[in-house]
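REQUEST FORM: STRUCTURE PREDICTION
Request ID: SP-0412
Submitted by: Lab K.M.
Chain count: 1
Length (residues): 205
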Amino acid sequence: MIDKICEYLTSRIRKEMPNIDDEQAEVIMYGIQLIIGEIPKVFSVFIIGAILGLWWQTLVAFWILLPYKYASGGFHLKTHIGCFIGTNLIYCGNAYLSTIVHLPTYTKIIFIVLNLIIGIIMIHKYAPADTVNLPILTKKERKMKRNLSYIFLAINMIIAILIPSNPVSNILIFGTAIQTFSITKIAYKLTKNEYGYKVYLQESI
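STATUS: Completed
RESULT:
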């Protein structure tokens, strides 16, 4: 159903803008799929979080980690069902785990330091992690998003160490670790994704 709606909207756009070629149309359709697919997915995250009695933790897990996700990127699951399940597992799962796990202060500090070290290395190697359908090709945009990734990583960990609420600090620690993993080559291989800029770079050679 979603695919048919996206195909229809893309065809309408192409009729209004006949200069759009097939490659550009694919990018447009993918963008429309993301927008239409994101709306029910976001609502489902909050609904499931509320059903589990974790509405505010889920809300925190989603919104507080959004800037880091926006800047650093990450893989996309191939199907709407897979994306639906994966998104709910990541955010609702993070919220649930963060409420049942208690990290002593020294353990929390160790996790934060590891998050910072591993995060900086992974951002340097892979961020912004794009996809074939939505590649980030300009050096200016790639540099900007990489620098923002460093900033948001640091902000998340500073808040995690300063905030007195254990569930919120856990959400930041676990969520940041999950997001950092999502940009790695291992995560891309497991989900059968490719870094978009590398594919386009190879095609241009």
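NOTES: Residues 2-204 form one domain.
Reviewed by: T.R.
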